[in-house]
């Protein structure tokens, strides 16, 4: 395989089953051509399992990959560490995941694999205690800023967003706002309106956290209008925020906002599994 396709372009993280089908279709070519490419592709198939919460299948595939790793497959070893860590993390075992991500970070730096090293740092932050997270986000952002790799530079908006939420949790709202504003600017400059809308929602959430409910309500209603203008689907999180601000402003439309939020968010399988109390509260405030 002289010019193998970039298998990362085959990913649809919202549909891991379809992604797995595309990866499996590519496997015969990969097996005939290049060991490292084949093993890297297999790590992504493992990831499709962990995204579907098929953790035993993901670990089994990674177990099969591990003895085939050699000094000639350094990038595959790095990806295997990342996907093993992600599998543990998705299963709720952060203690097992974190050292794997730290190992991947060090290995990525030694190999000059900046894109994957940044991925590892951002995953360490996800598994780290709150007080450690900001440092790992900053390590990743520093690596991005000095990188000439366009793929590595594409990490910036995610890192701005993640750092913003870490600072939010730490109560450092103005610093968080600066990060989310950078995230918004990046998406606007790169013509990504859907993700720009998410950044604007994040900024409105910060406005509410600072007690500026009328301002937050104005930001959210403008966001709602702008989304409708380009026919973006209605968003349950936006209605939830409208409701939360409405509560503080005695807005008569508040139950309607919560009703719409509950209707949209209650269809989310992850929220059903992990945020039952939140959904019940929405339903209660909607007076349904």
How would you characterize this protein structure?
- With 288 residues, the protein is mainly alpha-helical.
- The protein has a domain at 13-127: Serine Threonine Protein Phosphatase 5, Tetratricopeptide repeat (Alpha Horseshoe).
- It is built from 16 helices and no strands.
- It has helices at 16-33, 35-51, 55-65, 74-90, 94-111, 114-127, 130-146, 150-153, 156-169, 173-189, 193-209, 213-229, 236-249, 254-265, 269-274, 276-285.
- Helix 4 packs antiparallel against helix 5 (94-111), helix 6 (114-127) runs antiparallel to helix 7 and helix 7 (130-146) runs antiparallel to helix 9 (156-169).
- The termini are far apart.
- The mean pLDDT is 95.
- It comes from Aeromonas lusitana.
- This is Tetratricopeptide repeat protein.
- Pfam families: TPR_8.
How are the elements arranged and paired?
Blueprint: H1 16-33, H2 35-51, H3 55-65, H4 74-90, H5 94-111, H6 114-127, H7 130-146, H8 150-153, H9 156-169, H10 173-189, H11 193-209, H12 213-229, H13 236-249, H14 254-265, H15 269-274, H16 276-285
Helix pairs in contact: 1-2, 2-3, 2-4, 3-4, 4-5, 4-6, 5-6, 6-7, 7-9, 9-10, 10-11, 11-12, 12-13, 13-14, 14-16
Pfam family, one: TPR_8
Protein name: Tetratricopeptide repeat protein
InterPro entries: TPR-like_helical_dom_sf, TPR_rpt
Instruction: Give the helices and strands as they follow along the chain.
Output: HHHHHHHHHHHHHHHH
Q: Identify the CATH homologous superfamily of the domain at 13-127.
A: Tetratricopeptide repeat domain
Distance between the termini: 59 Å
Describe the oligomeric state of these chains in a short phrase: single chain
CATH topology of the domain at 13-127: Serine Threonine Protein Phosphatase 5, Tetratricopeptide repeat
Q: Note the main sheet.
A: none
So what's the CATH class of the domain at 13-127?
A: Mainly Alpha
Strand content: under 5%
Helix/strand class: mainly alpha
Give the overall pLDDT as a whole number.
95
The CATH architecture assignment of the domain at 13-127 turns out to be Alpha Horseshoe
User: Over all CA atoms, what is the radius of gyration?
Assistant: 21 Å
The helical percent reads over 70%
The low-pLDDT segments are none
Number of strands: 0
Number of helices: 16
Principal-axis shape: globular
Protein name: Tetratricopeptide repeat protein
InterPro entries: TPR-like_helical_dom_sf, TPR_rpt
Pfam family, one: TPR_8
Organism: Aeromonas lusitana
């Amino acid at each position: 395989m002289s010019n193998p396709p970039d298998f990362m372009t085959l990913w649809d993280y919202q549909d891991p089953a379809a992604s797995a089908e595309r990866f499996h279709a590519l496997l015969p070519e990969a097996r005939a051509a290049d060991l490292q490419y084949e093993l890297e592709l297999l790590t992504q198939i493992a990831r499709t399992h962990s995204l579907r919460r098929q953790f035993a299948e993901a670990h089994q595939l990674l177990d099969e990959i591990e003895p085939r790793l050699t000094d000639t497959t350094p990038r595959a070893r790095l990806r295997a560490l990342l996907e093993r860590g992600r599998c543990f993390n998705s299963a709720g075992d952060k203690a097992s995941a974190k050292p794997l991500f730290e190992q991947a970070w060090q290995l990525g730096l030694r190999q000059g694999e900046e894109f994957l090293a940044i991925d590892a740092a951002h995953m360490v932050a996800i598994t780290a205690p709150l007080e450690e997270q900001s440092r790992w986000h900053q390590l990743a952002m520093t690596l991005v800023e000095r990188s000439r790799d366009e793929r590595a530079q594409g990490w910036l908006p995610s890192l701005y967003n993640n750092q913003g939420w870490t600072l939010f949790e730490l109560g450092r709202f103005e610093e968080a706002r600066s990060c989310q504003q950078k995230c918004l600017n990046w998406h606007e400059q790169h013509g990504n309106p859907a993700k720009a809308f998410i950044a604007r929602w994040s900024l409105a959430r910060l406005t509410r956290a600072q007690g500026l409910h009328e301002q937050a309500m104005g930001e959210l209603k403008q966001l709602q209008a702008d989304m409708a203008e380009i026919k973006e689907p209605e968003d349950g999180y936006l209605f939830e925020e409208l409701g939360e601000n409405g509560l503080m402003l005695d807005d008569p439309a508040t139950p309607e906002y919560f009703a719409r939020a509950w209707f949209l968010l209650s269809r989310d399988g992850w929220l059903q599994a992990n945020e039952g109390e939140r959904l019940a509260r929405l339903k209660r405030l909607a007076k349904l």
